C-alpha cells in the first residue's frame, strides 16, 4: 500500500500469520478437547489448556520487560528467528499429536504455554513498527490484523474442523508458521522500518510521574472527601502513581473478558453458531472502531478514553446482562456482544499504546508489552475464576443474573470512579517528551496545583488560577471556560482572598517557580 514505510506491510503480514497460528492452537483445543484421565481421575483438559494459554501470554509479555535490552538485541539476529520458527513448527506438530493422545495432559499444557508465550513475544517485537505509522495508517493496520486473524481462525479453520480431515488443518497450520517466517525475512530487509526501529531510532525510557496528590499538592478529586469512611481509600489512591489507575482499568476489563470467555463452554454451540457469532462481533467492532476514531484524524488519548467508556463499557455490560435470556438461543446474542466488546477493546488498547508511545517518545514495543501484560494478567485471573464457576456452579438463569450484576458493578467501579477522563489528558502521569518551554509550563501548572491545595481552592477556582498564571485576562478566561465575565471575576476575587494577594502580578509571582527567574 502506498504511503507505508519500507517493509511495513511485510511485518504486518508476518504478525497476522503467526498470531493466527498461536490463536488457532488455543481455539482448536477449546473445540476438540474435553475430559481426560489423570492419575485415574477425570479432569477437564480443556480448562487446563485454556489456563496454560493465558499463563503463556503473561509469561511472554513479562519476559520482554524483564529482559528488555536483551530482547531488543535478539530481534535483530537472524539466527534467533531461525530457532524461533523451528520451535514454532515443533510446537504445532506436538499440538496435533496431543489431539490424537488427549490423555497427555502435561504435553497439552506445555504446548499451549509455549505457543502463547511465543505469540506474545512476537506481537511485542512487531509492535515496534508503530513508530513509523501515523494514526490513520495504524487504524488501518489494526482493522487489517484483527479482521484477517478472525477470518483465518474463526472462519477458515472452524469450517475445516467440521468438513475436512484433521491432517488438512495441520498442514495449513504449519503453512501459517512458514508464511510468517518468509514475511519476516522481507520485513527485516536493510533500511526497513522494522530494522530501523531496533537500530537507528533512539527512544526515551518510560517514566512515571509520581501522583501529585501524594503530599497534598493537589485538591481532592470530585467526590473524594478527605475525611470520613473513605479516608483510607482516598489516601491510598493519592499515594499510587497515576498510571496505576490505568492499569487497574485495563486489568479489570481483562478479568471480565477472561471470565466471560469460559462461560460459553457450559452451553452447546454448533460450528455455524460459533463462527457466525465471532465473525459478526468482529465486523461490528471493527466498523465501530473505524467510525468512532474518525479514520485516525485527530486521535489522542482523551478521545480514545472517551470512546472506551462510551462504547466498550455498555457493550460488555449488555453482554453480561443478556446471559439469562440466551439459554434458548445458543447464547448467540450475548456471544456476539461479548466478541464485539473484546475486539473493540483490544483495538482501542492497541491504538492507545501507539498514541501514548508517540506522545512520550518511548519505544512502542515497551508500551505495548506493559499494556497487554496487564490485560493478560487480568484475563488469566478472570479465566481461573470462570473455570472454577464452570466446574462447581450450575449456570441457570439465577446464576447468569448474579454474574451479570457482578460484572456491571465491577465495571462501573473501575470505569467511573478513577477520574480517568481527567488523567487521560496527561497520559496518566507518564512523562511526555518535553522541550524547555514544556518543562516550564508543566512546573508552573504543578505549582498552581500545589497552591490550590494549600489555599483550599475549588476545582473551578484552581482552573481559573492556572489560566491567570498564563497571564490570561478575564475576557479570555470567559471564552475558554464558556462562562460569563462576571463569573470569572467572582472566581478571581475568591482566589485573591484565599491566597492573600491583591493583584494579578502578585499572584503570578506567587506561583512562579525558582528556576523561572533564570
Automatic annotation (TrEMBL):
Domain of life: Bacteria
Keyword Transferase among UniProt keywords: no
CDD domains per UniProt: LuxR_C_like
Pfam families xrefs: GerE
Transmembrane feature ranges: 7-25, 45-67, 79-97, 103-125, 137-159, 171-189, 246-269, 275-296, 308-325, 331-355, 367-386, 398-416
Keywords: DNA-binding, Membrane, Transcription, Transcription regulation, Transmembrane, Transmembrane helix
Domain HTH luxR-type as annotated: residue spans: 450-515
Protein name according to UniProt: Helix-turn-helix transcriptional regulator
Lineage, highest ranks first: Bacteria, Bacillati, Actinomycetota, Coriobacteriia, Eggerthellales
